[in-house]
UniProtKB/TrEMBL annotation:
Function description: Ferredoxins are iron-sulfur proteins that transfer electrons in a wide variety of metabolic reactions.
Source organism: Pelotomaculum propionicicum
Domain (4Fe-4S ferredoxin-type) ranges: 1-28, 30-56
Gene3D superfamilies named in the record: 3.30.70.20
Transmembrane stretches, start-end: none
Alphabetical list of InterPro entries matching this protein: 4Fe4S_Fe-S-bd (IPR017896), 4Fe4S_Fe_S_CS (IPR017900), PSI_iron-sulfur_center (IPR050157)
Keywords: 4Fe-4S, Iron, Iron-sulfur, Metal-binding
Cofactors that this protein relies on: [4Fe-4S] cluster
Alphabetical list of Pfam families matching this protein: Fer4_9
GO MF, any single term: metal ion binding
Protein name: Ferredoxin
Spans annotated as Disordered: 58-82
Record's compositionally biased regions (Basic and acidic residues): 73-82
Length: 82
């Protein structure tokens, strides 16, 4: 399940793109609930990069230590197959 780090200004981008409605308003910011299917779409729509993959069950990692699931390359078009 993906998680939202602290400091979300609540722009709403992620809520609008989430296909399962897993992201809901939580005060100023948003939170992700168990409806998350780990599609990763929301990550690409967060302007302040606050969404990341949460800890994998069974692994002792914290939210801050969990590596991102996908690398994003700025200012370059999406690559197809190499
Ligand atoms: S990873 Fe996908 S299902 Fe999970 S909160 Fe983000 S957009 Fe929604
Ligand atoms: S896209 Fe990012 S900044 Fe906007 S509401 Fe979602 S987590 Fe917050």
């Amino acid at each position: 399940m993906y998680v939202v780090k602290e400091g979300c200004p609540g722009c709403g981008n992620c809520r609008h793109v989430c296909p399962t409605g897993a992201i809901t308003q939580d005060g100023i910011g948003v939170k992700i609930d168990e409806k998350c299917i780990d599609c990763g779409i929301c990550v690409h729509y967060c302007p302040v990069r606050l969404i990341e993959a949460g800890p994998v069950p069974g692994q002792a990692v914290t939210t801050q230590e969990a590596p991102p699931r996908r690398k994003t390359v700025r200012n370059e078009p999406e690559r197809g197959e190499e």
